[in-house]
Amino acid sequence: MMWRRMLSVTIAGERWLRRRNCLPSGIRVLCTLKTDHAYRSLKSPSLVSLDIPDIWDSNIVCSDFHSFQASFNRNMGRRIDGLLVAEEIRFGIATEVSRMKASIGEVPGLAVIVVGQRRDSQVYVRNKIAACEEVGIKFVLTELPDNCTEDEILNALTGFNKDSSIHGILVQLPLPRHLDEGRILDAIRLEKDVDGVHPLNMGNLAMHGREPLFIPCTPKGCVELLLRSDVEIMGKRAVVIGRSNIVGLPASLLLQRYHATVSIVHPFTKNPENIAREADILVAAAGVPNVVRGSWIKPGAIVIDVGTNPIEDPSCENGYRLIGDVCYEEAVKVASAVTPVPGGVGPMTVAMLLFNTLESARRALSFI
């Protein structure tokens, strides 16, 4: 088989590949595509810029375990502070929103539809409202009861799809069981699908050589944390616990786009603990409190805890507290770095939602 010996990448993508010595032997850059936008508050480059030909090296036998551990332990602490990283990103977004308002008199607009009174959903919505107010993004909230009909949600979506002042639409998941989640998410206008849940966005995320309009916010936030923590993803063994459409599945797809070797653990997986313990990067997104114990973690691994589980606690202001899918107290004794709950992935998810909404407004308003 003849492999193509030339590669088209963006300027930022070429730099990313060259820094990591990832351009295979004999491959030369054919052309540089349109330069990445002058404003970028994120470390992650475009996905297409990461694409390189799959040329297998017949000399590969196994990797040196100690060199893997050394790369993970370098400049890594015990706690990955998502609050701090998210604050830096929000500052950049606020600056850009102010520039947009001063230049063209417009600001990005985000609409959120929430159904029912789930505690975790209420927490997420409150955080989104506060974050939008902080950065200057217009926020519109539609609240519907648990027993609402699909048509009520679809009517709200139709209005937001047509509203030119709304650049991002998010339906807070999960929805009550009587609602057809797929039908509702399909109704979101593709150009406003800032949570990246539309099938076309998900399909482009999965396909080599394609670029989704939006990457789902939580997986995007997880990878951004890894990049900002100087964690090398390429060539590492990643295990994602959970395969939901909003976190587990897109997280596994995104890690593959960064050339990790990815395994997924789900409820029917045999010996999940053994599989998880093979991971250099472990992403826990099962939605089960403390399911990942210290014995599940490979010494020196990076652990990203996506879980946000409300636990009754009368001593807390709201009568409950949030814990993750990972037993943090055990994980920190084994892993080289762990995201806490709260204060880890959660703030990053909101920051990525703001970023995607800003990017959507840029496209709609032709704002450079």
Automatic annotation (TrEMBL):
Residue ranges of every copy of the Tetrahydrofolate dehydrogenase/cyclohydrolase catalytic domain listed in the record: 80-195
KW Amino-acid biosynthesis (keyword) present: no
SUPFAM superfamilies the record matches: Aminoacid dehydrogenase-like, N-terminal domain (SSF53223), NAD(P)-binding Rossmann-fold domains (SSF51735)
Gene3D superfamilies: Leucine Dehydrogenase, chain A, domain 1, NAD(P)-binding Rossmann-like Domain
Keywords: Hydrolase, Multifunctional enzyme, NADP, One-carbon metabolism, Oxidoreductase, Photorespiration
BP GO terms, sorted: photorespiration; tetrahydrofolate interconversion
Designated name of the protein: Uncharacterized protein
